[in-house]
Specification:
The chain is an alpha/beta fold. It has helices at residues 27-37, 81-89, 103-106, 111-117, 142-148, 168-193, 203-210, 212-220, 257-267, 283-294, 299-305, 318-323, 325-330, 366-372, 377-386, and strands at 18-22, 41-47, 70-74, 94-97, 122-127, 197-202, 239-243, 249-253, 312-314, 333-336, 339-342, 389-390. A 7-stranded mixed beta sheet has the order 6-5-4-1-2-3-12, with helices on both faces. 40% of the residues are buried.
């Protein structure tokens, strides 16, 4: 059942894939969200007490990274807590955990015991620095991991400090997305070999991979190591953002000659009167001309002048992006229980991926999810009586129908 009592449907291309997610924050949940978005049946094992939220969020119902799965609340420090995970693992295709190396083993849910329970299991491990190496036991955040991989040093303007690119590169791109790819690759292989394995995903390694092209440029000597002096790092005046007359911003992307010619035409500038675009020493002069020119008109005036050309785009804020006609036509964003969020991606012509309701409250589906995965009801009652599992702290704050787990919550 979903939060409103309707049958949960797994309609995406990963329908039939079963994943156990041991609750964490950041990249692990993002990985699980990607899989759940595409139809995987993901059970999130939340802490019995003190389950964590990401960033400034204070409501599990609006925690977008938790969408698309059911939650069971388990006390992994209880003498029987590991039994819950191992019983789920027995019929799972994959597991996701984000502990520091060795913690899962101490809790009794490490890869050896899980693979003993299910030899075809793919055991996904998400850490900052990996399972081995001098920094394996170090703690950190996205900014620390992308600093270690060399990515952070590449991001920012000339003469300015490195600029953190949100938490996109370490947590989500180099972390969760790379782990999701690794899990699916290993599940594919297990389908042929009949053998599971451990997938070691580290945010340092994954963020380095995201920057593969730039590591290659530096190695080949074609990339200036001084930040903000190259073609796509804010160094080139024809690949940057400029303020408009109304205090908004315009994105200019005119790398190729034909795009550059279009840009000059839109701006009303004569190439013959401008510094040579290929002379890096004169880029600051060219940037000033562009900045002064673009500041003469509003953002929408420039967008109108550039219609049909690919050299200029408005810099939309998040709320503008939600309602832009193109994004609306594509269904890029969806509203789920009053929370606007990106729709599952990519698109599939037959096996449509959907978000079927808001994220769960920890423990909201404890009985339902365990039953759906074939766990003996008597065993579930024993766990509940012993305190190894619990139900949600409170009913879900939405109307319920007969049969929904919210009716059973204390």
């Amino acid at each position: 059942m979903t939060h409103d009592g309707t049958e949960r449907s797994f309609t995406g291309p990963l329908a039939g894939l079963r994943v156990v997610e041991v609750g964490s924050i950041g990249p692990g949940p993002y990985c699980a969200m990607l899989l759940a978005d595409l139809g995987a049946d993901v059970i999130r094992v939340d802490r019995a007490q003190g389950a964590a939220l990401v960033g400034p969020n204070a409501d599990f119902r609006t925690e977008v990274l938790h969408r698309g799965r059911r939650s069971v609340a388990v006390d992994l420090k209880h003498p029987r807590g590991h039994e819950v995970v191992l019983d789920l693992v027995a019929s799972a295709d994959a597991l996701i955990e984000g502990f520091r190396p060795g913690v899962a083993e101490r809790l009794g849910i490490g890869p050896d015991v899980c693979l003993a329970a299910n030899s075809r299991l793919v055991y996904g491990r998400m850490t900052g620095y990996g399972q081995d190496g001098p920094l394996a036991q170090a703690v950190g955040h996205d900014i620390n991991y992308i600093a270690q991989s060399g990515v952070l040093a590449l991001v920012g303007r000339q003469g300015q400090p490195p600029t953190p690119p949100l938490s996109l590169v370490g947590d989500f791109g180099g972390g969760g997305a790379v782990l999701a790819l690794g899990l699916l690759a290993a599940v594919w292989e297990a389908g042929r070999s009949g053998r599971g394995q451990v997938v070691d995903a580290a945010m340092v390694d994954g963020s380095a991979l995201l920057a593969a092209a730039f590591h290659g440029f530096v190695s080949a000597g074609t990339w200036r190591t001084e930040r903000g002096t190259n073609i796509v790092d804010s160094g080139a005046p024809f690949y940057d953002a400029y303020e408009t007359a109304d205090g908004r911003w315009l994105a200019v992307g005119a790398l190729e000659p034909h795009f550059y010619a279009d840009l000059l035409d839109v701006l009303g500038l004569d190439a013959a009167a401008l510094p040579d675009r290929d002379d890096h020493t004169r880029w600051p002069e060219l940037a000033k001309v562009f900045a002064d020119t673009i500041r003469e008109r509003t953002r929408e005036e420039w967008v109108t002048r550039a219609a049909g050309r690919g050299c200029i785009s408005p810099v939309l804020d998040v709320q503008e992006a939600w309602v832009h006609p193109h994004n609306v036509a594509r269904g890029t964003f969806v509203d789920v229980a009053g929370v606007t969020q990106p729709a599952p991606q990519p698109r599939f012509s037959r096996t449509t991926a959907v978000v079927d309701g808001p994220p769960p409250v920890p423990g909201e589906h404890t009985r339902e999810a365990l039953a759906a995965w074939g766990i003996d009801p008597d065993v579930v009652r024993d766990w509940e009586r012993d305190g190894a599992i619990r139900l949600a702290d409170q009913p879900a704050p939405v109307p319920t129908q007969e049969g929904s787990l919210s009716d059973e919550a204390p």
